[in-house]
Write a structure and sequence with these properties.
It is a single chain. With 230 residues, the protein is mainly beta. It has one domain: Beta Barrel (Porin), CATH 2.40.160. 8% of the residues lie in helices and 54% in strands. It is built from 2 helices and 8 strands. The longest helix is centred in the N-terminal third of the chain and has 13 residues.
Amino acid sequence: MYMRQLVLLIGLLIIPTIGFTQTYEVGGFIGGANYIGDVGDTKYINPNNLVLGGIFKWNRSPRHSFRASVNFGKISADDLDSKDQRRVERGYNFTNNIKEFGLGLEFTFWEYNTHSGSPIHTPYLYTGITYFLYDNLYRNADAEMVKDGGKSSFAIPMALGYKASLGRVVSLGFELGARYTFTDNLDGSVPSGAGGMDYTFGNLNSKDWYVFSGITLTFAFGRAPCNSKF
């Protein structure tokens, strides 16, 4: 149900623009992922798994763009990597698969016009809404991590990046993006279904985070945009 709603929202944003095409960008993302929660190391930026994805942008002005993205990655953590002795003694670990679909706005610090004909570069901020799929995990009575189907949830992405033009149509960027999720069970610490509340652990008052950091490469197409007030 959530997936159909997300696809419909993206369509409502993109389809009306067909009659007055401006500047679009399409490309890919490659980088690393890490998780922040109740298991493993407590570093905020510590990529240890691969992430691959795609990006589509509709540049409404030299200062902001509508952006849709799809990313596929894996997150994992091990208490033995932690500097917290209590976690080391506990010895938990997990692996989870993430498939995310994002929609939001990208704001540049300076004007970024791909039709300027001269080298351009700028820092930028991105935020919006992310819908993602993940494995529903729980730790059983034998302290073994078990997968119990799949779940979905939403997250708020908060990304900081820097991009630069490589000619008229190509842009290369670096992005660091944290996702604040609306679930506390990416690590199996607050299970639902077969696990139940009998197998909870960790801090029940905070949600899980995951971070995607990496490189973007996009290609621009479409005619030069007219001045827009939106």
